What we know:
It is built from no helices and 10 strands. The protein is mostly beta strands. Strands 3, 4, 5, 6, 7, 8, 9 and 10 form an 8-stranded antiparallel β-sheet that branches.
Amino acid sequence: MKQNLPDECYHGGAFEIGLGVETDIERVMRGGSVELGLAYTPKTKFEHDVLVRGGVEPSRTVYERSRAAANIGVVKRFGKGNIQPLVRGGGFYVLHLGNKESRYYQSKKIVDEDWENTAFFGIYLGAGAQMPIGKHYFRLHADWYKSMEKSSTGNMVKWGFTAEFAL
């Protein structure tokens, strides 16, 4: 996952849990479906190190927050075999909760700041494959999320891999 804030690029990994609903739209698109998802990411840390001009050691910045997200989109599956390639895309809304920034220099905390919740909306695109397992399926896909707003509080770009099991 990559989090681009106004002046820095924070990196880190996050665990996300969610619930989704998907329904076929065969009358409109062969192999197509509409998906609706809700997800939550518990408090996660993103960090980076940067050498401050004239500094002796890197300044370390840690950004913490939780996240709630909703998305709606379309999934298009290809073929009827055991492994079906798919593409997906749609829109999302993300609410970052409990934003906190800490900055350390020469082992001293020089910034300790909390700020209001922030929100972003944008688009997502992805590709992957699904495999039927009885009446259910397993799906693995890679996705790219990009916020569409220009904001003084930051701009989000996220990418990641998702494994799903559908009931």
